[in-house]
Write a structure and sequence with these properties.
The protein is built from ten helices and no strands. With 262 residues, the chain is an all-alpha fold. The longest helix has 33 residues.
Length: 262
């Protein structure tokens, strides 16, 4: 029950974040100037650069999950022609995946002018998802000519988008921004993994104190000595290392200025 509540909370927060990104994207695409109060309202569910980055990845994560469903059956939807409901479900998943990837490319297009390095990073991630999930035109040919054409257009658009942004960055001597962004995001991921590992170790140490020893000053002191280095590592990662890494690429994260004003 507790886990379900947490999952529901996370899902609701993700939905709110996604809606806020959509609103910012529509405003940017339309060239609408947003007031400070409007920005504050828009970013009510996004409070940090880490959350902004997470919000910008929600759509791709959802798409990846849909594609995983098709990968699990090796894209062999023809095996389910005699099971109408399952076959229709897989076809719907294929169509929704193409739709979501096109929306992801729309988002990337909207970020290209102001944040080309981040747009290139997202375009590269999308192509990685396409390759890892084995998205190929021939899979869609088993459904119809229309689906096959739709898939081909999507794959061409994804490749062209990445190539175009990469070329523009190189021609404007801004490719180093992309390298800084990718390297720093990898460092943040490594630090986050390390943080989770240290937190798990700290939890194990806390649970390791026997119940009968909770009132034993000696055992309590021994535990404090063992956990002190872990607490220091957690504090350093949460309050210094990870925030410093985010700050170093704040200028490359979309809508970061709006986040500061909010």
């Amino acid at each position: 029950m507790v886990s379900g509540g947490l999952d529901l909370y996370t899902a609701n927060k993700s939905r709110k974040m996604s809606n806020e990104i959509d609103r910012l994207q529509r405003a940017q695409t339309a060239g609408t100037a947003m007031t400070l109060s409007a920005i504050g309202t828009t970013l009510s569910a996004i409070g940090s650069l880490a959350e902004m980055n997470f919000a910008l990845q929600i759509q791709m994560a959802e798409c990846d999950a849909k594609l995983q469903t098709l990968t699990d059956i090796s894209w062999k939807i023809s095996d389910y022609f005699d099971r109408k409901e399952m076959h229709e479900e897989f076809v719907a998943t294929m169509r929704h995946s193409i739709h979501t990837m096109n929306r992801e490319l729309d988002l990337i297009d909207s970020l290209t002018e102001e944040n080309p390095a981040y747009a290139l990073w997202k375009a590269s991630l999308l192509l990685e998802v396409i390759e890892e999930r084995d998205v190929r035109v021939e899979h869609f040919s088993r459904v119809s000519q229309v689906e096959m054409t739709s898939a081909q257009n999507l794959l061409d658009r994804a490749a062209d988008t990445r190539s175009k942004i990469s070329t523009e960055l190189r021609e404007s001597d801004r490719i180093e921004e992309y390298r800084l962004l990718t390297k720093t995001l990898e460092q943040i991921a490594d630090c986050s993994d390390r943080l989770n590992s240290v937190k798990n170790e700290y939890s194990r140490e806390e649970r390791g104190l026997p119940k009968f020893g909770t009132n034993n000053p000696y055992l309590i002191e021994q535990q404090k000595r063992r956990t002190a280095p872990l607490r220091e590592q957690i504090s350093s990662l949460e309050e210094e290392e990870i925030p410093a890494l985010w700050d170093s690429i704040a200028h490359l994260i979309p809508y970061s200025s709006a986040l500061e004003k909010a």
